[in-house]
Amino acid sequence: MTETTLEPTMVEDVFDESYREKKGPKPPMVIVWRNVVLMSLLHLGAVYALFLIPSASPLTLLWALLCFVFSALGITAGAHRLWSHRSYKASLPLRVFLTFANSMAFQNDIYEWARDHRVHHKYSETDADPHNAVRGFFFSHIGWLLVRKHPDVIEKGSKLELSDLKADKVVMFQRRFYKPSVLLMCFVVPTVVPWLLWNESLWVGFFIPTLMRYALGLNATWLVNSAAHMWGNRPYDVNINPRENRFVTFSAIGEGYHNYHHTFPYDYSTSEYGWKLNLTTCFIDLMCFVGLARERKRAAREVVRARVQRTGDGSHRSG
Ligand code: ST9
Ligand code: ZN
Ligand code: ZN
To answer: Of 70, 97, 273, 299, whose Cβ has the fewest other Cβ atoms within 10 Å?
Structure first.
C-alpha cells in the first residue's frame, strides 16, 4: 500500500488566473426544451414514487439505498476522484466496477463528465465554467443542463489535456456503449431485481429504486455545484466561492468539503478529516487495503496549515 503526500502531477484541474471573460453582451440563452420536459417528468415521477413508499417491500427500499450508494461511488470514487483528478490509481477490475456504477448514475459518460469537471476547476465561476455559480442557484444546480453551453466552455474545454482519458480503454469502451449501458444499469437492473428476487411489482421497482433513486442521486450531485458554492465556511481560501457544507457532505457521500477540494484538488480524500462523513474515502481506502487501488495523493499537513494561515477565513479548527 503506497501513499504519497507529494504535490499534484495533474495541472488540468488547477485554477487558471490568466483567463478573462470576453467583454460585451453575453450570448443569448438557448433553452433545450427536450431536456426541460425530460427533467420535469423525472422529478414528477420521483414525487409520485414518494406515495408508493408505504406499499413497497422493505427489501425494495433497502435495494434503492444500495443502488443510490453504488451509483454515487461511480461518480465520487470514479468520475470525480479517479478520472477527473487522478488522485489515486485503480486496477482494471476496480475501473470496470466503477464504470458499471457510473452508468447506473447516468450523469453523462466518464469522458464527458471529467472534461466538464476539469474545465469547472480550471475556470471556476467564469463563463468557461459549465455550471458557473455566479449565475445563481438554479443555473448551477440544474439550469446548466437545460440550456446550450456558453461558447467559452467549449472553447476552453477543447484545449484541455485529456490524453489520459483517451488512453483508458475502459473509459472509451463506456463512451462507445454509453446508451445501452445506461439502459441496463440505470433503468433495467434497478427495476427488475426486486421483481425477480422478492416478487415486488415492476411498477414500484420502476418508480422507487429507479426514478426516485436517480433523481435523488442527481440532486445530491448538483448540490455540490449549487449549495456548496454558496453556503458554508471557507477555512482554506476565502478568495474563492466553494465552501465547506456539512449537509452536502452527508448527501454526496463525502463531497461537500468543497473549499478544501478546490484548494487541493489532487487530494484523494477531498478533505482533511479522513473517514468523517466520507464514505467515498472509506471505499478508496478499502480498495487499497485489498490491493485494487494504490498511490493515493494527499496534501501535506504543513502545506494545508500554511494555506489556512495565509488565505483561510479564520474558521479552521486549528484557529
Ligand atoms: C449530470 C451531470 O447531471 C452532473 C455533473 C455534476 C458535476 C458535479 C461536480 C461536483 C464534484 C463532486 C461530485 C459529487 C458527486 C456526488 C454524488 C452523490 C450521489 N469541452 O454538450 P453539447 C463539445 S448529467 C470541450 O451538446 P450544447 C462537445 O464535445 C444528467 N468540448 O453542448 C460537442 O462537440 P461534438 C443527465 C465540449 O449543445 C459540442 O461541444 N444528462 C465541452 O451546448 C456540443 O456539446 C443530461 O441531462 C467541453 N467542456 O448542449 C444531458 N462541452 O459535437 C445534458 C461540450 O464535436 N446535456 N463540448 O462532440 C445536454 O443535453 C447538453 O450537453 C446541453 C448543452 C443541452 C446541456
Ligand atoms: Zn473536483
Ligand atoms: Zn466546484
So the answer is: 273
